[in-house]
Amino acid sequence: MKPLEVNGWTIYAHPLFLAQVEALTVKVRHLQSKDPAGYRNKAATKRLAAIMKLALHDIPQDPSSTQYRQGNTLGTEHTHWQRAKFYQQYRLFFRYDAASKIIIYAWVNDDATKRAYDSKHDAYTVFQKMLRSGNPPDSWKALREASMREVERIDTLFAADSDEH
């Protein structure tokens, strides 16, 4: 299966990112079945739509944009990681390689890990711990290898979401 391409960028996603988006998709489908007329106004539906817009439109326009730089928030050893902010407390973490025109989405936080300064459940604190434990891998090569195995999964997930929203 051919990987997803947007605006000349090849898009991959790490299993951690996909698991978060899949869980949110299940939640939105449940909301839709309970309230077909009003589910689009629910926070989970809006958050899923925001993630899809970031992943499939905004970030592939220019992943090097200064708005995605996170500075030293993850520590000086992780300044190569980018993040997209949305709805104040949510972050989508990713890396890109300009030479190969590849973007890899690594993780997006959820309700349990909202941005909250000095909290052990803060999105940056949690992601930094994940990086230190090696999942997702910090190495570009290992991250790319782990994500390239998920081509079918990302294609199915993004195609299903674009059909519904």
TrEMBL record:
| A Pfam family matched in the record | Toxin_YhaV
What does the entry list under GO cellular component? toxin-antitoxin complex
A Gene Ontology molecular function term for this protein is: RNA nuclease activity
Name the chain's protein: Toxin YhaV
Q: Which InterPro entries match?
A: Toxin_endonuclease_YhaV
